[in-house]
Amino acid sequence: MTGTLVLAGTPIGDVQDAPPRLAAELAGADVVAAEDTRRLRRLTQALGVAPAGRVVSYFEGNESARTPELVEELAGGARVLLVTDAGMPSVSDPGYRLVAAAVERGVRVTAVPGPSAVLTALALSGLPVDRFCFEGFLPRKAGERLTRLREVAGERRTLVYFEAPHRLDDTLAAMAEVFGTDRRAAVCRELTKTYEEVRRGGLGELAAWAGEGVRGEITVVVEGAPDKGPEEVGAEELVRRVRVREEAGERRKEAIAAVAAQVGVPKREVFDAVVAAKNAEKNTGI
């Protein structure tokens, strides 16, 4: 019989938030794969438990190499517990590769539900929670970051992001540029920790605040785009908007997708307008 892969949520701040089952799983697993073994040691000490099984590191740098090893252990009947530094494994943390490989081998995968920065920030934000999407970390490069934000400019669901504190002001400024300075948002800092703070306001206001310097672990929640219905935009205007984005460095495919989302029309409609304009230019010799 194959073993079991257990994904365990760990506290995002206050160790008292640890799921009751976490201590039992740590004590009983054959293998504990941890994103940071030093943090795991501090966690086990706080919980008063000592792992009986083998402890190995499992982080971004060795995830690809270690996954096959762990899958073989699982195939041999081992119970493998996966924990990351905070929150749920595979949610912007190591874990996806191992889960996918385990599923492919027919290994049972289960979880010890635990704290989540995504859901905690969403609940505290004061923004709509009935529909939301998690976007993880944005690209570090300014151009790529703007492109990613433009892709969701028309997204009506609430958006949730992770961000490093030293990039927060640039990210909020980029969001204000793409989504508008008045779009409501919440910056959730140091959730469940001593200096927890939730700052709410328009993106422009929050960008100015972040420019003074912010510390800690950050989750940003942004209100979705207002439901205005499809914008009345003709083919010529669609083509013009695509060209503006291309001239700014976007690839045509990305520009078409962004314009379609912004206007509220199918991407095919924008694509057809661009192709028709190109053909018209050829026929007139422009």
Automatic annotation (TrEMBL):
Keywords: Cytoplasm, Methyltransferase, rRNA processing, S-adenosyl-L-methionine, Transferase. One of its GO terms (molecular function) is methyltransferase activity. It catalyses: cytidine(1402) in 16S rRNA + S-adenosyl-L-methionine = 2'-O-methylcytidine(1402) in 16S rRNA + S-adenosyl-L-homocysteine + H(+). Pfam families: TP_methylase (PF00590). Its main location: cytoplasm. SUPFAM superfamilies: Tetrapyrrole methylase (SSF53790). PANTHER family: RIBOSOMAL RNA SMALL SUBUNIT METHYLTRANSFERASE I. Catalyzes the 2'-O-methylation of the ribose of cytidine 1402 (C1402) in 16S rRNA. This is Ribosomal RNA small subunit methyltransferase I.
